[in-house]
Amino acid sequence: MSSRSASSRSSSSRSSSRLGRSIALHLFLTPLALIWLFPLWMMVIFSTMPDRGIFSPSIELLPHGSFLDNVNNLQRDTNFIGAIGISVSVAVTYTFLSVLLTSMAGWALARYQFFGKGVVVAIILGTITLPYAVVLIPQFIMVARDFKLANTWVALIVPPLFNSLGVLFMRQSFSMMPGDLFDAARVEGVKEWRIFLFVALPLARPMLAALAIILFLASWNNYLWPLLINSKPGAMTAPVALGTLIGLTKVSWGGIMAGAVMLTVPMLVVFVLLQRHFVAGIAAGAIK
């Protein structure tokens, strides 16, 4: 009887301890979350205010009624809806092709032995250390002058396709999978491409989802490369279209804030809906 009582007290003590740690953690993280969310909330507030109201000395914390006016002005000045359509098309195409290519490269580096494999991995690791500004101008010269692909969708999508972090991430993911499973498929006469498509990729679904979210957001937010390679007003991506509202003598801050809300809120919703896959993929790819 005494042992049961001691066990019950011990279990109750552990539960109280876990509850206390949970409360302390929430008390610590809640202010940090509010600090992180405050700029986003102010962006929403500014998107509902006219230009003259954004720089008023008083601090406004509640929405106003000028959001539709700002959206109309934004659409009139930039054809922003069309720019969003271009951004969606580019981001979806880029994400699909980049996930496919990085998965193929990761599969080859994880499951095949070939001469120079270590050198290839070292080169991929080395490219991560290079700032993007180092390769930006040579990439622009090669694409625009040598290949004459400026102002084309190919120039928007193809040059950023290779993603070093994506390759290493998928290499780690495939390395964690049991090799006996693939060997059994080979014994059964399954061809290599079918093993990759119908065995390896389904097992790597959480990692693929996490990688797809990261790549889609990278393409969605990409500003510098589309700005350099595309000079046609009717073919601008959404971030570049927003940048055109910053002029030498006038800046349409209300339109910029409204466009930023239109670009940010859908991505936050998508991330919230897919965060389970994102977290599972990142965790699975980080543990060996």
TrEMBL record:
The family classification in the record reads: Belongs to the binding-protein-dependent transport system permease family.
Q: What does this protein do?
A: Part of the ABC transporter complex UgpBAEC involved in sn-glycerol-3-phosphate (G3P) import. Probably responsible for the translocation of the substrate across the membrane.
PANTHER family given for it? ABC TRANSPORTER PERMEASE PROTEIN MG189-RELATED-RELATED (PTHR43744), SN-GLYCEROL-3-PHOSPHATE TRANSPORT SYSTEM PERMEASE PROTEIN UGPE (PTHR43744:SF8)
Name the SUPFAM superfamilies for this protein: MetI-like
Q: Which Pfam families match?
A: BPD_transp_1 (PF00528)
Can you say where in the cell this protein is located?
Cell inner membrane; Cell membrane
Q: Which GO terms describe its cellular component?
A: plasma membrane
Q: Which InterPro entries match?
A: MetI-like (IPR000515), MetI-like_sf (IPR035906)
- Primary location recorded for the protein, binned into one broad class: membrane
Q: What is this protein called?
A: sn-glycerol-3-phosphate transport system permease protein UgpE
The entry describes its oligomerization and partners as: The complex is composed of two ATP-binding proteins (UgpC), two transmembrane proteins (UgpA and UgpE) and a solute-binding protein (UgpB).
Provide the alphabetized UniProt keywords.
Cell inner membrane, Cell membrane, Membrane, Transmembrane, Transmembrane helix, Transport
Q: Which residues cross the membrane?
A: 23-46, 80-107, 119-141, 153-174, 195-218, 251-274
Q: Residues in domain ABC transmembrane type-1?
A: 84-274
Give the GO terms filed under biological process for this record. Answer: transmembrane transport
Q: Which domain of life is it from?
A: Bacteria
How does the protein associate with the membrane? Answer: Multi-pass membrane protein
